[in-house]
Design goal:
heterotetramer; A: about 190 residues; mainly beta; 8-stranded antiparallel β-barrel; 4-stranded antiparallel beta sheet; about 5% helix; about 50% strand; B: about 500 residues; alpha+beta; 8-stranded antiparallel beta sheet; 5-stranded parallel beta sheet; about 35% helix; globular
Chain lengths: ~190, ~500, ~500, ~190
C-alpha cells in the first residue's frame, strides 16, 4: 500500500458508503485501486460455477476471491439497484452503496433538506407474532422500556425504546403476525429530560 | 439387531440419527413437514414420507400421524432425536403400544425425569445434591413472589416440563416475580403444552457441567465423563466442551458417580445426561435429559464411543461392551452451535435461503449439519443450522483448530452466530477457561466488535470493483473468471516472459 | 516457531498445509498459476501471488519465481507439499540458499533417497531388505532386456527419479522389454525431467505396506506404524488404510524398526515414509518418500498426531515430544482417493466444472478436499479432487462408515472414482482383508457393475417428470419448490385434516 | 408399486430411452407415475437455491429429491435440447431421452434407413496430447492393437482397436492436441476373420 501519486493510468472514480463512512475510490486500468489516497494492487475473481449473463442467480450471493496487495479475502456479493451491494465477509453481512462522485453530491444535497430530530419509528427486526403491547398511544417512555413482545422461533423477544420518547401511534396489536421491517411504533418528538 | 427405524425429527439431529443407523445397516425412514420436502434429512434417508403442514403441532408433534407412517412403512423402531417428542412419556408409551421399539428410556423413566419437581424428589432420595427450591408447581404470580422471598433472591423460574431454556426466567427483585411468572408460563405452554412452573435458588456465577450416561437393559450404567456448557445466551447453550477445563480428577470422579447414582435411581436405559450447576467447588443436580443431547459429539470425540450406535444397540437389548475403567478420555473437543441468528443485533432470529455453503475440513474437524444449498431458513423450527466440532490433543489445540475451522465455514444468505464464535475463540478469558453461565453478559465488548480496518478496506475495494465491472448500465454485471482486473503483479511477472507487443 | 510459510503447491495438499500452518499461527502465503486464480488454496490462504501460466514447468515448478515471491512476501519458510518440487534436492538447496527454512529433510537426504539406485545401496548397507535387481540406471532397451533376463521375469522398470507410479512398467516377456523401456523413459522424462530407468524383480501378488516416520534435528526418529496401500490402479494408490489388516504384532514391530533404521541411515529430519512390498511373510524396501504422503491422514486418525504440525515444529528445530512407546494406535482408518476419472470407462481422465458439492459429515469422517463449487477440473494437474477418510473402532466399523460417507458425497459436473469405491466397500474379498496390489485386476466385475433396477426406475421416473414439468415449449423448465407433482400420500394425509372444499 | 389398472386420472405418455433400453411412462395428475405398466407414487422437488426461469444455471446440474413409493433418491439433472436430460445418481452420470410416443416412432423409422456394418470411428475419449501413432493408413489391425497413445494428466493412455478392421484414415498425428470427442481414426469395413 502506497500513497497515491501522479500516474499515467487515469481511472474511474467512485464514492463508496459503507458502515456509516464515505470512501473515495479510484479504479485504475493498471490493476490497482486507490482508496482514500492509498494505492493497492487489486484482483477480484468469482469462485462459483460460471453463469451466463442471463442466468445470474439473483437470490443468493456469489462467491468472490479478492486479492488486495496480495492479502486474500473470500467474499460473497449480491448486487441490488442503483449501486447497492450486499457483501458478506467473515460471516458478517455489510451493505455498500457505490455512486459516482456527482450522484453522491446530489444525494447529499437532497438529504439535507429534510432533517429532523424525531426518533425513527420502530420496525420489526424479524418476522414473528406480537404477544404483548405493554404501552399505549400518548404514553411517555424511557430508553429501555419494553414497547412490544414478539414471539419468533418459540422465544419471546422484547423490543424496547432506543431513547426517551412519546408513543404517537401503535401500528401492531397482540395476535398480529408481522413481517420483517414492518412498522410497529411511531414516536413524537423526544421529551426534554 | 434392529432392522429399520423411523426418525421422528428433522434438521441436523435427524441426519445424525440416519447416519448412525445406516452404519449399522438399519433402514432409515424419514418424515417431513411441507416446507421440509427437499430438506437434507429427506434426501439422505432411505425412505421419506409427508406428515403434514409446517406447524410442528400438526406434523413433527403429531403422534397419530407418525405412528401411521411407521405402520405403513414397516418401521420396526422409532428414534425421537432431541426436542419435539423426545421427552414425551406418552409418545414413548404409544410407540411401545404399537409394538415398536422406542430408542430411548422407558416411559416411566421419562415421566419421572420430565417432571422437574418429581425429579428433585428422586434425586434427593438417591443422595444427589440439588439446588434449594420448591418441589411443587406454582399456582400464581402471587405465590411465585411469596415462595421466591422464602427461598431468597435471586431465584429462577423454570417450566416443569421444560428443557433448553424455554419457559425460564431469572427474577432478582420481588416486584418482577409476578410478571416473570406470566411470561415463563406462556412460553412453557407454547413450547410444551404444559405451563406448570416451579422455582429454585439462582446461582450467581455457576458453570453448567453435565455428565453423559449410557445404560443398558441388564442393569449396567457407565458415564462418559463430563461436558462443560457454560457459554450460553438466553439460557441456550452456544459452546460446549469435553472435558471441562475446570474439574480436577477427584471432582470428575465424584460428579460421574453422582450421575450414575441418578441414572440408577430411575432404572435408566439408553443415552442420557445429568446436568449439574457447579459453583465454588459444589455441584447441584439441575435436571436429567432422557435423550441424546445437541452437544453429544464432543463426548464422542474424546471417548471414541458412538452414542447413536449404542442407543440402537441398547434398544435392541445388547449389553454395554465397555466397563467404566475402559472408557478413554483423549484430548479435548469443542462444539460451536451455528445458529440462524444475528449475534451483533441482540441474537435476533435470522431468515433466508442458504446460498453458498462451504464446510470446513481437514484434521480434527467434524461438521454435523442440517442444511444444504437451497435450504429455506424460516421461523417454524429451531434456529440450529449445524454444529462445528474440533478435537485436539489439548484445549489450546482444540481452540486453535476451531478458530481455523470457523474461518473456513461459509454460509451465504443468512446471518449466523459464526462471527461471534470466532471472537470468543480469541477472547483471553475464554482461552484461559475463566467462564461461567454469565460469560456473555460479562463480555459485552464481544457484541460491539468493529469490522477491522483491513476487512473494511477489502469491502470498499470489492464494492467498487463489482460496480466498476458491472458497468454503468448494470445490465450484464460480469467479471472475467481469470484474474480481472489484471493484477499489476501478474503483469510484472508476465514481463519477464519473452517480450510481447504490450509488455512494459 | 516459524512465523510465515510459502506453500509451493496447489489443490488439497496446499489446503492441508495452510490449515496446519494456520492452527500454529503461521502466516500462510499461497501461489497460483493462471487457471488457479479462484482455487480454494488461494481463497483460504492469508496471502496469494501469481506465479505464471498453467503449465507446471512455468509456474509450480518454476523455482526462480517461487523464491522471488517468497522474498517479496517476506516468507520465512517454504513447504513443498507432495509432488511438484517436494523431492527435488536442488529446490531444497535453493530455499536454504535464500536463507529460508525448507520444511522437509536436508538436500543430501532427498538426493540419497530420490535416486532409487543410490537408495538401494544405502538400504542394503543399513540391513534393510531390498528386492533383487539393479543398482544402476539402464542405458537402452537392449540392456533392459538383458538385465531383465538375468534377474528373471517378471521384472518392473522404474524411474530413478520417480514416485507415484509415473515412469513405471511391468514386463513379463523378453519381447516387451525394449518397448516398455521407451515408454517408461518418456514418462519419466516428462514427469521429472529425468529419464533414468532401473530394473527390479517383480513380485506377483505383493501387498504395499509403508511405514510413517518422524525425525527431528536432535537425532530422534520414531515410526507411526504402517499404512496398507495395496488397492492401486496403474500403480497409483486408490484406497489406503491404517493399520494393515494383515500384520501381526511382531511383523508390525519388525517393519517399524526396519523403517527407523532406513531413516537413521540418511539422518532423516521431518516426516517421511518407507514403502515396503510384502509377500508371503517377507518384506522388501521399495523406496523412501522424503515428504508428506497423500495418505498421511489415516495415520493421523489412528495416532492422533498431526503430521503437518510436526513437520513445522521439527523444521523450527523443536525436539519430538513423543517417544516410540508413547505413540497410540487406536481403531482403524480408511482413505478413499476421489479422483476426476471415469472408473467404468478405463479410468479415463474426466474434466468439467464442479457444480453441486455435498461434503459428508457426522462422526469419524474427514474430508481433505481441494475443490469448491466452480472449480474447473482441467488436464494440467493431478486428478486428485480430494480424500475421504473414515475412522472407527475397528476395520469393519471404518468400512461401514466409509460406505455411508461415500453415499453422502456428491460432486456434480465431473465423473469421479466414487461409484467404484462404493462397490469396493461392499466387495467380500476387500471386506475380509484379502487384498494385494493386483486386487483390481482380479476383480474385473467391479468395472461392469450394472445400474441396479431401483436406480434405473428412479432415473426413468426423474427424466419423465422433468420433461413433463418442463412442458412442451421447454421455455421455462420449472418445478415447484413444494412437493410437485403432489404425492398421493400427501393428499391422503391432507384428507385426514378437517374437511376442506377439495378434500376427498 | 402396483400393476396399473383403469383410472380416472388419464396422464401424459412418454417414451424414455436410458442405458440402451426403452421405457413406456405415463405421468398422471394424481401424483403417480406408471413405468412399464407399474404404478408408483412419485414426488420430485428441487433442492438447490431457487432461480428465476431466466436465471437457471445451464452449465452445472441442479439437485433434485425424488420420492418413488417413499424411497428417497438424490439426483442432479441438467436439461439439453429435444427431450435430452443428463442425470447423475450415486456418482454415475446417465443420459436420458424423453419423447412423446409419436416422436419416438418417427425417430425409429428414420434410424432404420441408414444402418451399416462399418466399425464406428475412434474418437478421443478425453482431451490430451497425441504422443504416438503406431499404425498407418491402410493397415489391418486386430482387436486390442494400439492405435494411438495420448498423454493426459501426465499419464500415457493407449487407445486400442475395439475389433478387427482396416485403418482407412488417420486424423491425428504425434504432437497434436486433441479435444474430447475429436475424430482420431476412421475404419474401412471389418475384415472377415
Amino acid at each position: 500500500m502506497t500513497r497515491s501519486n501522479a500516474t499515467s493510468h487515469p481511472g474511474t472514480r467512485y464514492v463508496v458508503s459503507l458502515l456509516g463512512e464515505r470512501h473515495d475510490v479510484e479504479v485504475r486500468s493498471d490493476g490497482t485501486i486507490v482508496i482514500d489516497g492509498f494505492r493497492l494492487h487489486a484482483s477480484l475473481a468469482p469462485t462459483g460455477p460460471p453463469h451466463t449473463a442471463a442466468s445470474r442467480p439473483p437470490l443468493s450471493g456469489e462467491g468472490y476471491s479478492l486479492l488486495l496487495d496480495g492479502t486474500s479475502f473470500a467474499l460473497r456479493a449480491r448486487g441490488g439497484h442503483g449501486g447497492e451491494w450486499r457483501l458478506e465477509l467473515d460471516g458478517r453481512a455489510v451493505e455498500a452503496e457505490v455512486l459516482d462522485p456527482r450522484a453522491h453530491r446530489m444525494r447529499q444535497l437532497s438529504a439535507k433538506a429534510g432533517t429532523g430530530a424525531k426518533l425513527a419509528p420502530l420496525k420489526a427486526p424479524m418476522p414473528g407474532l406480537v404477544v404483548q403491547v405493554p404501552v399505549e398511544e400518548g404514553q411517555v417512555v424511557e430508553a429501555g422500556d419494553t414497547l412490544l413482545i414478539v414471539e419468533a422461533m418459540k422465544m419471546e423477544n422484547e423490543l424496547s425504546a432506543p431513547a426517551a420518547a412519546t408513543v404517537s401511534r401503535l401500528r401492531a396489536a397482540p395476535g398480529d403476525a408481522v413481517e420483517k421491517g414492518q412498522l410497529l411504533v411511531e414516536f413524537a418528538e423526544a421529551e426534554e429530560a | 439387531m434392529i432392522e429399520s427405524v423411523l426418525v421422528a425429527n428433522r434438521g441436523e439431529i435427524a441426519l445424525r440419527v440416519i447416519r448412525g443407523a445406516r452404519e449399522l445397516g438399519i433402514r432409515t425412514i424419514a418424515v417431513f413437514s411441507e416446507p421440509d420436502r427437499g430438506a437434507p434429512h429427506v434426501v439422505h434417508a432411505d425412505e421419506a414420507y409427508p406428515i403434514g403442514p409446517a406447524r410442528a403441532a400438526d406434523s413433527y408433534l403429531n403422534i397419530g400421524r407418525l405412528l401411521e407412517v411407521a405402520r405403513r412403512a414397516g418401521a420396526q423402531s422409532v428414534h425421537p432425536g432431541y426436542g419435539f417428542l423426545a421427552e414425551r412419556a406418552d409418545f414413548a408409551a404409544a410407540v411401545s403400544g404399537a409394538g415398536l421399539v422406542f430408542v430411548g428410556p422407558a416411559p416411566k423413566t421419562i415421566r419421572a425425569m420430565g417432571n422437574k419437581t418429581e425429579a428433585r424428589r428422586r434425586m434427593e432420595a438417591a443422595g444427589v445434591p440439588v439446588v434449594p427450591g420448591t418441589s411443587e408447581p406454582l399456582a400464581s404470580g402471587r405465590e411465585a413472589r411469596g415462595v421466591a422471598e422464602a427461598v431468597g433472591f435471586p431465584v429462577v423460574l423454570k417450566a416443569a416440563a421444560g428443557g433448553g431454556g424455554k419457559g425460564m426466567r431469572v427474577v432478582r427483585e420481588p416486584g418482577d416475580a409476578a410478571g416473570a411468572f406470566g411470561a415463563a408460563m406462556r412460553e412453557a405452554e407454547a413450547a410444551f403444552g404444559d405451563g406448570r412452573i416451579y422455582i429454585e435458588r439462582f446461582l450467581e456465577r455457576p458453570r453448567h457441567i453435565e455428565v453423559q450416561l449410557l445404560g443398558d437393559a441388564h442393569g449396567n450404567v457407565v458415564h462418559l465423563f463430563e461436558r462443560e456448557c457454560s457459554i450460553q445466551r438466553r439460557h441456550q447453550k452456544l459452546i460446549e466442551e469435553a472435558p471441562s477445563a475446570l474439574l480436577g480428577e477427584e471432582e470428575r470422579r465424584n460428579m460421574g458417580e453422582a450421575a450414575v447414582r441418578a441414572a440408577r435411581a430411575v432404572d435408566y436405559v439408553g443415552a442420557g445426561t445429568v446436568e449439574f450447576l457447579y459453583q465454588d467447588g459444589e455441584f447441584f443436580f439441575l435436571e436429567m435429559n432422557t435423550r441424546l443431547q445437541v452437544e453429544h459429539p464432543v463426548t464422542e470425540m474424546v471417548t471414541g464411543i458412538d452414542l447413536v450406535e449404542w442407543q440402537f444397540r441398547v434398544a435392541a437389548g445388547e449389553e454395554l461392551a465397555m466397563r467404566q475403567h475402559e472408557i478413554p478420555l483423549e484430548g479435548h473437543a469443542i462444539e460451536c452451535r451455528i445458529t440462524s441468528e444475528s449475534p451483533f443485533d441482540g441474537f435476533l432470529p435470522a431468515t433466508g435461503v442458504v446460498g453458498e455453503l462451504e464446510i470446513p475440513g481437514g484434521p480434527g474437524v467434524r461438521w454435523d449439519g442440517g442444511i444444504a444449498r437451497g435450504t429455506e431458513i424460516g421461523l417454524h423450527y429451531d434456529p440450529l443450522l449445524g454444529k462445528l466440532i474440533a478435537h485436539g490433543t489439548d484445549r489450546e489445540t482444540a481452540i486453535r483448530r476451531m478458530r481455523r475451522a470457523l474461518r473456513e465455514l461459509g454460509i451465504g444468505g443468512v446471518s449466523t452466530s459464526t462471527p461471534l464464535l470466532s471472537l470468543i475463540m480469541e477472547e483471553p478469558d475464554f482461552r484461559a477457561g475463566r467462564i461461567s453461565t454469565r460469560y456473555l453478559e460479562e463480555h459485552p465488548d464481544l457484541f460491539h466488535a468493529e469490522v477491522p480496518p483491513s476487512a473494511r478496506r477489502a469491502l470498499v475495494a470489492a464494492a467498487a470493483l463489482l460496480e466498476h465491472s458491472a458497468g454503468s448500465g448494470r445490465a450484464s454485471p460480469r467479471i472475467r473468471r481469470t484474474a480481472a482486473p489484471l493484477s499489476a503483479w501478474t503483469r510484472a511477472a508476465a514481463a519477464t516472459d519473452p517480450p510481447r507487443p504490450n509488455g512494459r
